[in-house]
Amino acid sequence: MQRHEMKIDDRTLSYVDFGGTGRPLLALHGGMSEALAFTGLAAALGDAWRVIAPDQRGHGDSDRAPDHHREGYVRDAVALLDHLGIDTPVPLLGHSLGGLNACHLAATHPDRISALIDVDATVEIRIPTGQNWWDFLGGLPYTAPTREELLAAAGPAAPFVADGLRPLTDGTGWRLAYHPQDMLDSIHACEGDHWGTWLASTCPALLIHGTDSEALTQPMADAMVARRPKTSYAPLDGDHFVPFTNPDGFHTAVGTFLATL
User: Rounded to an integer, what distance in angstroms lies between the CA atom of residue 165 and that of residue 2?
Assistant: First the structure.
């Protein structure tokens, strides 16, 4: 496993190449996550697949970006493929935010994508009024002088953010793996009807669904599979974070699908 960097408009995009001699698999992590979320998947797939995962804009070691709309995320992914010299179509996997981005990438660049794995990303996103689970972001600090102070300031969210904390490059303190306002902007930029995008791609696809997910309901999952040709379905015990709450099931589902390509 090696971490690398590339430049896009003077902005750093960091990515992890898990190595191997197998075929490339591009993997896009979820919101408030990072490329290292696919460490377990890369190990489970072994030498058959070379997992390549960017820290998507505003996440992990990648720089903050001016916007968090789908077009920007897609441009970054295409730029990464170009940077790596990968000009043949590759399978594409995305979880949650990454799943939505993957759907848009497959729809707008069909010549670059040979298969699509959507991990618990719905195609109808409505931001409800009132209290939401992500409201904790509004109270999170981005930096603090020490790691301990940053965790203390995070309060109940400390266990959720702890693994991603990073020292500031100038040595003056610590930061989260993302700016809280960027994540709020990214969540709201996802709102809308993405059915047209889901149906626009024609490559083989797999929908992995955490059957206890609040983000992707059973009726929506059933409709997504029924309406899109060449789409397989893998229901797994688990919630929206099924890659982490049911890693064995997730790894098996991905590996089984990739073996059919």
Answer: 19
Confidence of residue 135 (pLDDT cuts 50, 70, 90): confident
Distances, alpha carbon 49 to alpha carbons 6, 17, 18, in Å: 22, 11, 9
DSSP for 37-95, written as a single string: GGHHHHHHHGGGEEEEEE--TTBTTSPP-S---HHHHHHHHHHHHHHHT--S-EEEEEE
What is 2-125+193-258's CATH superfamily? Alpha/Beta hydrolase fold, catalytic domain (3.40.50.1820)
This prediction has a pTM of: 0.97
Rounded mean pLDDT, 141-160: 93
Which among 232, 256, 252 has a CA at the least distance from the CA of 243?
252
Q: 230 near 202, Cβ under 8 Å?
A: yes
Amino acid making up residue 35: A
